[in-house]
Design brief:
The chain is an all-alpha fold. It has helices spanning 20-45, 47-58, 62-90, 92-109, 116-130, 133-142, 150-178, 187-209, 222-238, 247-250, 254-275, 277-283, 289-317, 321-337, 345-366, 370-373, 376-390, 392-408, 412-432, and strands at residues 7-8, 441-442. It is globular. The two termini are 24 Å apart.
Amino acid sequence: MNESASLGTAATSKDQGIAPVYRKIIWRLIPFLFLCYVLNYIDRVNISFASLQFREDLGISTAAYGFGVGIFFVGYVLFEVPSNLMLQRFGARTTIMRIMVAWGVVSISTMFVTSATQLYVVRVLLGIAEAGFFPGVVFYLTLWFPSALRARIMAMFVLAIAVAGVFGGPASGFIMSRMSDLWGLRGWQWLFLLEGIPPVIAGIAAYFLLSNGPHDADWLSADEKALVIADLAAEAEARANSKHGSFLAAARDPRLYAIAGAWFTIAWCGSVINYWSPAIIRNSGISDTLTIGFLSAIPYAVGALGMLIINSHSDIKLERRWHYAFSAGTAALAIGLLPLAANTWQLAIVLLTMLSVGYLASVALFWSIPTAYLSTGAAAGSIALISSLGQLGGLTAPNIIGWTQHITGNFAAGFYTVAFGMVLGTGIMLIAIPARLLKERRIAER
């Protein structure tokens, strides 16, 4: 058993049930945040479907497309930490509204690009607009839920990636195949227009639906607020002796960069399934855009189920590191085997499904590790720093994969590089973050 499991109340599996107050918070916050992340992911990765048309329309090569995908993370990385520090200061309502409205407007503007250079500019702006959303929500959830519940809570949130894949692929395929040349717009232009409007609407709604924390949640009773605040205070006290009581102190901790290195390789993994799966399916023998969209939904659907099972088991056992290592290793193995599916679409779907299970579980599990290690005062900035440094993987992987595919004519070299990097990054984090450093406590069901 994880040494940290000895903290707090009696360690029984029943204690890992979700108390009524937390179920109430879940139903109030998670469905809306889930919807926001679905929209976020669709707007970030719909370029993978749009590229099936606009690359030919604009005369953009595979390498140039990879650069356009990756350059998104330049703006994203530069503005994540400032955005999260603003969320900590001004609250989630205002910050999430600003982020969502901005990214929706920028996403819509992508429909007007006419060259590779314009695509690069819009992708950088989209990265700036989206910066802070994911790490902001990760930090926001730490204001409501103790660490013993976070793997399951993060799984509920990260499930949005799977839902975006399940519905986003078919929807994107439908828009591009059925609306192309309607009113003089190409299918990819309709795609950016129709998928850019919902975030603007949801961003405005966020201001009215979200509370900044338990203290100002008028939908919780006084006793419920006191219970949540007490749980979080007890957890904060368990980390009171942490050497990083502030963000600046945490930024000097080498272990923080080992964690960021692991997230870097998960971002590499995400690039494969999020930006290249349509091309992998097409290259394996499927040419119809709508069919590609439906087939691309299968890995995400199965991946969602696998993620929920793995993350729930992690919470029950209160063990994070080896659950994460298993998930990341599964994804790395799938990526390493993908070159074998070059001409067999059935095998491609099986391996993409295996990749999806490992990737989605890794994303959700990953954030239960730094949030159990960092002190409360250091969490907001440190989470953003880990995310921003790790997202450099999102900048480099598309370029590596695109460049090697352009040079060699296949994805093998790029995929092998990503798989090796994931194994290396996971090993480094396991060594750098031993179980004794994860200060978690079980909470009794009340």
